[in-house]
Every structure is written in structure tokens, then in C-alpha cells.
Amino acid sequence: MYLLLPLLLTIIAEERERNSDRFKDRCMICKAGDRSSTLKLKSIAMIAIDIELSELKKSLNVEVVQLRTEFQELKNTLQQQQEDVTASLRNLGLQDSAGDGAQEAQEPKVDVEDQEVHSSAEEDVEKKDEN
User: Fold this and answer.
1) Any residues with CB less than 8 A from the CB of 11 and at least 6 apart, and which?
2) Which residues contact 26 (CB under 8 A, 6 or more apart)?
3) Domain limits of the chain?
4) What was the pLDDT predicted at 62?
5) Which of 37, 73, 75, 92 could form a disulfide with 31 if both were Cys (CB 3.0 to 4.6 A apart)?
6) What kind and span of H or E run contains 81?
């Protein structure tokens, strides 16, 4: 079995490239006529692929969390800048109070949309984790 390890690694690398025809040919060449060995190699390759996919899923989840955090920070920064601009305009007497009400009415709408996107992304991650 240890002698087949380099061949197995080659097979896995080729499967990653999604070149399934070469993958099948290599498996058949590995033990021509010995169907059980070929099936064992395919099983081992599939297990290795599953492990790699699990690791990729974990790293992707970490990246999603980081992006959500960055997005929230950017959103907070933008909100603070908008408040600063509004305060500056008020100080200069360039903005009326009716404009403030319209702006405040829009802000909760953005939060609701963010929560919907956030919850749908979490549901997608949970569904993928279940599979």
C-alpha cells in the first residue's frame, strides 16, 4: 500500500483539477484487471477529497466571518461620517429638520436588509454543513 502512495497523491491532484477522464485511466492502470484495488484507491481518493473539502469549508467560514466583521465596521464608519456631515450641515444652517426624518426612516430599512442577508447566509452555511 505504501508503494502506491505517490500514485495516489497524483490521482488526488488530478481529481482536484477536475480531469475525471485521466483520473479513471490512472486508476485502471494502477491495477489493471484488479477491480477491488482500483475501487479501494477510488475510495481513498474520495476520502482525501472529502477531508480537503471540509478544510476548505472551515477556512471559507472563517473568511465569511471576517468579511461580515469588516462590513459591519465599514457600515459603522459610514454611519458615523453621515452623522458628522449632517451635524456640520446643521451647524451651517444648510439642512432642514425634514431631511433628517427622511434619512432616519431609511436607516432601519438598511438594517433589516442586512439582517436578512446575514440570516440567509447563515442558513446556507448550515445547510452545507449538514451535507
Assistant:
1) 23, 26, 27, 30, 41, 45
2) 7, 10, 11, 14
3) 2-130
4) 93
5) 37
6) helix 35-92
